[in-house]
Amino acid sequence: MAFATTMITNGHAKAIVTKVGMETKVGAIAKAITEDEAPQTPIQRKLEEVGKSLGTVCLFICAFIFLIGIIKHISVREMFMTSIGLAVAAIPEGLPAIVTIMLSIGVTKMAKKNAIIRKLAAVETLGSSSIICSDKTGTLTQNKMQVVETFGNSEFVLELGTMCTDSVISNTGEISGDPTENAIVSRALSVGINKNDLPNRVSEIPFDSERKLMTTVHKIRK
Predict the structure, then answer these.
(1) Would you say the pTM of this structure is higher than 0.70?
(2) Which residues of the chain have pLDDT under 70?
(3) CB of 179 within 8 A of CB of 143?
(4) Catalytic residues
């Protein structure tokens, strides 16, 4: 069974389409991403628990006061209005504002440490994290590779390796191209080998996964 968006690189085959659109596996994933709601953050769960607790306590106190009023022969209407007023007064209207202010302070502190937060709720979630796993490519590094060690005749090896790259050295000395090839060219420059001074390339066999190597042909100057 082949899935939609599968890349076929080689070979021949016949296939029967069984599902299309949102009925495919890729469609199911897309549907799940667009429809599923994000789980509540820890602070949202805590606020929900606080709200439920306050509501329960308020109802209990209001009912208790209402019963006391009835026992003391106060009119039912008056005690009912008193209980309703007490319940409304017990609701902490400033709680959302306080939470927002505290999260804003957290955003400011994290921004000073070069951590940009797009959503306020993410501050609390990140703050409660003890372990963070992240990819180490590009985003956390400069994406600059270096040749650490060469074996044998180092200069000759670097000369051959430099000729077998597509990196370009500009007039300002800046190297552009594939990071791996740039590392070889940069190492060669550090020992006085400039790619621009090496024999010109007249032909090449590009790198492929089967040969696992690249071949170049150069014209030696006499």
Answers:
(1) no
(2) 10, 35-39, 121, 127, 135-143, 222
(3) yes
(4) 135
Neighbours of 96 (CB within 10 A): 10
Tokens at residue 206, please? 């590009």
Residue 136's pLDDT is: 62
Residues with Cβ within 8 Å of 123's Cβ and at least 6 positions away in sequence, in order, are 103, 106, 107, 110, 117
Please give the biggest Cα pair distance in the chain: 120
Output the CA–CA distances (angstroms, integers) from residue 212 to 6, 91, 159, 205, in the order listed: 24, 70, 20, 11
H or E stretch covering 67: helix 42-71
Query: Measured between alpha carbons, how far is 171 from 193 in angstroms, rounded to an integer?
Result: 15
State which amino acid sits at residue 6. T
CA pair distance 43, 50, nearest whole angstrom: 10
Residue identified by tokens 């939470």 is 99
> How far apart (Å, rounded) are the C-alpha atoms in residues 188 and 86?
81
C-alpha angle 117-121-123 in degrees, rounded to nearest 5? 50
CA–CA separation, 36 vs 47, rounded Å? 22
pLDDT digits (tens, 9 = 90+) for 89-111: 777 777 777 777 877 887 788 77
Three-class HEC string of 96-163: HHHHHHHHHHHHHHHHHCCCCCCCHHHHHHHHCCCCCCCCCCCCCCCCCCCCCCCCCCHHHHHHHHHH
What the block records as the tokens of 61 is 């106190």
